[in-house]
Design goal:
Length: 148
């Protein structure tokens, strides 16, 4: 049994298994950046991309590295957006929790910062996915021209 996570950053109870937020499915989700690569390239193309990443000193190797780094950044930003959304959901859950005294729940500016921050995280993630699309297009063009 784990304790409820502390609101102070870095002091949450640690467990060996990741907790699943209430109301979500228990199936792990693939990260959207790498999933987009797998969808666009297919599994064989994705594995080729990973192999080409290690070909340092070649233009295609550097481009493959850029594609994978861009996908990893998109995945990181997606995780950050999901964590922030979970935080907002928890704050709203506390607000509507019938077991808490409403007099002690702060409602002043509840969504003011969280709404703005959510918009920023979502916009940054969308920007990164657009950048991934552009870098992936460049990579696919280079692969077609080299005949690999």
């Amino acid at each position: 049994m784990t304790e409820r996570a502390s609101r102070i950053r870095g002091t949450a109870a640690r467990t060996l298994t990741p907790s699943v937020p209430p109301g979500s499915d228990s199936t792990p989700r693939r990260a959207p950046g790498h999933e987009a690569l797998r969808t666009a390239l297919g599994e064989d193309g994705y594995q080729r991309l990973i192999r080409q990443r290690h070909e340092r000193g070649t233009a295609l190797g550097e481009l493959a590295d850029l594609v994978l780094n861009t996908a990893a950044e998109a995945d990181r930003l997606h995780g950050k957006l999901r964590r922030h959304a979970a935080h907002v959901r928890d704050r709203l859950g506390d607000l509507f929790n019938p077991h808490l005294d409403p007099g002690f729940v702060s409602v002043t500016g509840l969504l003011q910062n969280t709404g703005h921050t959510t918009d920023l995280h979502a916009a940054r993630f969308a920007q990164q996915m657009n950048q991934l699309t552009q870098v992936l297009d460049s990579y696919q063009t280079a692969v077609r021209h080299t005949g690999l």
